[in-house]
């Protein structure tokens, strides 16, 4: 399956992307900053969402550099107006990608959602210039779940809905632990100086991280309920908990893997 799992109406999609940026942009920027991006670099931000990381990259590479931000739906990138940013409507599973073109290739939470992730990974590596840097960020969901809940039984309900959601994701073609496999995948492909850094935290109810999960639960509501392991009342309670001040959960582990071609 090459299609994006979270296809939905515009409002939910934008809420999803906004919560994702609020929850993880600071983490991603720290990883990219450590790469040592310089003025004049040409960068690819694949699956750029609504463009927040592409915008940051544009500030780093300056007027002598260029950032190519790709999305299957370019409407999501309509807020990108930097002179050194080029928005490209592009599907990595189908459309060609220039060879040996970029000093940096970045993608966040993209490969995890693609059943053709191994083939797409090869294409992203091929897009790097010799010596170019690859930075890929993906989830390893192991360990995520409720840490605090307002009423007896709430934590069990939430964890059951979360597990059903993750099972639905896997059926749709996602590899929900892909973040842990990337290190070996990059080493096998001959990248140099491969590094892997993970980030996890506690998300209290009402936080950007919980808003991200709430939106995901809503986008995959039908798939969650169709599995038959949780009912509508349990799904609804899990959604309510994500906005409750007496709730907290351990986040997914976001694993940043980098290496040099």
Automatic annotation (TrEMBL):
Q: Which InterPro entries match?
A: Methyltransf_11, SAM-dependent_MTases_sf
Residue ranges of the Methyltransferase type domain? 44-136
Q: Which Pfam families match?
A: Methyltransf_11
On whether Transcription regulation is a keyword of this UniProt record, the answer is no
| Keywords attached to this entry | Methyltransferase, Transferase
Listed under GO biological process in this entry are: methylation
- What Gene Ontology terms describe what this protein does at the molecular function level? S-adenosylmethionine-dependent methyltransferase activity
Tell me the superkingdom of the source. Answer: Bacteria
Q: Has the keyword Transferase been applied to this entry?
A: yes
Q: What is this protein called?
A: Methyltransferase family protein
Native source organism of the sequence: Halopolyspora algeriensis
């Amino acid at each position: 399956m090459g299609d994006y799992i979270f296809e939905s109406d515009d409002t939910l999609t934008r809420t999803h992307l906004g919560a994702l940026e609020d929850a993880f942009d600071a983490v991603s920027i720290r990883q990219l900053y450590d790469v040592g991006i310089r003025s004049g670099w040409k960068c690819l931000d694949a699956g750029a969402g609504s463009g927040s990381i592409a915008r940051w990259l544009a500030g780093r590479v300056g007027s002598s550099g260029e950032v190519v931000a790709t999305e299957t739906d370019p409407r999501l990138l309509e807020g990108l107006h930097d002179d050194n940013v080029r928005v490209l409507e592009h599907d990595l599973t189908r459309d060609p990608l220039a060879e040996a073109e970029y000093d940096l290739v970045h993608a966040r939470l993209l490969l995890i959602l693609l059943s053709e992730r191994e083939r797409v990974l090869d294409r992203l590596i091929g897009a790097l210039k010799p010596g170019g840097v690859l930075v890929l960020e993906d989830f390893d969901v192991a360990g995520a779940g409720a840490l605090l809940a307002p009423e007896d039984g709430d934590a069990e309900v939430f964890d059951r809905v979360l597990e059903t959601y993750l099972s639905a994701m896997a059926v749709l073609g996602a590899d929900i632990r892909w973040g842990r496999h990337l290190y070996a995948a990059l080493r096998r492909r001959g990248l140099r100086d491969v590094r892997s850094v993970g980030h996890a935290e506690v998300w209290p109810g009402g936080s950007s991280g919980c808003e991200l999960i709430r939106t995901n639960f809503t986008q995959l509501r039908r798939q969650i309920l169709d599995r038959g392991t949780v009912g509508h009342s349990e799904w609804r309670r899990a959604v309510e908990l994500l906005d409750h001040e007496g709730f907290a959960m351990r986040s997914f582990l976001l694993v940043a893997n980098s290496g040099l071609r």
